[in-house]
Amino acid sequence: MLRHMMRRLVLFQGQHQQPTFRALRGTKMKTPRHSPGLALSIWTLSSKPRDFSQPNSSWSPEMRKVYDHYNALCATDPENESEKSPWMKLPSYNRSIKYATGGIHLSKLIQAEARLFTRNVKEQGATFEYVVFINKEEKSCVCVFQSGRLLEGAPGHVHGGAIATMIDTVTGTLAGFLSGPIMTANLNIDYRSPMPLGSVVLIHCVLDRIERRKTYITCKVTSADESKLYTEATALFVSISVGHLFGSRS
Ligand SMILES: CCCCCCCCCCCCCCCC(=O)SCCNC(=O)CCNC(=O)[C@H](O)C(C)(C)COP(=O)(O)OP(=O)(O)OC[C@H]1O[C@@H](n2cnc3c(N)ncnc32)[C@H](O)[C@@H]1OP(=O)(O)O
To answer: Which Gene3D superfamilies does the UniProt entry name for this protein (predicted)?
Structure first.
């Protein structure tokens, strides 16, 4: 049954689509088309998992302020309803499989105890608090990230591995949004200044280019007011078939 359901995963290509999923009848898995168009993966069942990117009591006033700023950009102007905002807030689940409609059911069948690295601690605010906003027209995104006390590296500062995790997550989210199922093939990071623990930073990512199965993303991490540069990175994601994750490359 599981194999049958996995076979029904297909890719959906369409400019300016909201991240909703649609039942398709294809039985063969397809690899994504490699244009900068937006691509989303789909399953056939439907259900709504918990969105971890909603504001919570651990958020500092600064985190809330920046979130409110980008959230407002997502709203459609009531005086010009025909013009939809290019910005959208992405939901955030505790397993990537849950992005697919029906994924909440599959997540109970496939390694039910597994959790996304960045969403695996119950205590709010202790590790990674973040929200990703995508700009569909610019093929870019901004992540508002507040680091928690359990992410310490150098005293009082965020661990470089935690920063790398967030860069991988946000560049990977943009690449996945644009190109469908992908895996990180290469990540280059320059740490420019130490990031204070507990601070709110912005992770800005933009599509550099897509070449065949390769999606290249560039990334900058700055302070919330964008005056200070913390980190710069480039990332390469390679499109995969779902079979790549389940032992078959067909
Ligand atoms: C609304 C929905 C939004 C979506 C919302 C999703 C949200 C969800 C949140 C979580 C987001 C987390 C994102 C984290 C994602 C990981 O962290 S993934 C974990 C870390 N990565 C891995 O474990 C990958 C391990 N490596 C592999 O599996 C394989 O090496 C790869 C990367 C799939 C490539 O293997 P392959 O498919 O056999 O491809 P291959 O033919 O070797 O290479 C294809 C092309 O890529 C090039 N290439 C491959 N590797 C490299 C490399 N290292 N350097 C340079 N070039 C390379 C090749 O030269 C080739 O180039 P061309 O010939 O086309 O020019």
So the answer is: Hotdog Thioesterase
Asked if ipTM goes beyond 0.95, one says: yes
List, for residues 113-155, the tens digit of each pLDDT value: 999 999 999 999 999 999 999 999 999 999 999 999 999 999 9
Predicted TM-score (pTM) of this structure: 0.86
- Return the residue whose CA atom lies nearest to atom 6 of ligand 1: 173
Q: Is 142 contained in some domain?
A: yes
Catalytic site positions: 168
Residue 250 belongs to some domain of the structure: no
CB of 214 closer than 6 angstroms to any ligand 1 atom: yes
Strands (E), the chain: 10-13, 39-42, 87-89, 128-135, 140-147, 182-191, 200-211, 214-223, 229-239
Give residue 226's region: left, alpha or beta (phi > 0; psi -120 to 50): left
- 3-state secondary structure (DSSP) of residue 31: coil
Domain of 149, CATH number, reads: 3.10.129.10
Ligand 1 neighbour 165 (Cβ under 6 A): no
CA of 237 to the centre of ligand 1 (A): 4
169 ligand 1 Cβ < 6 A = yes
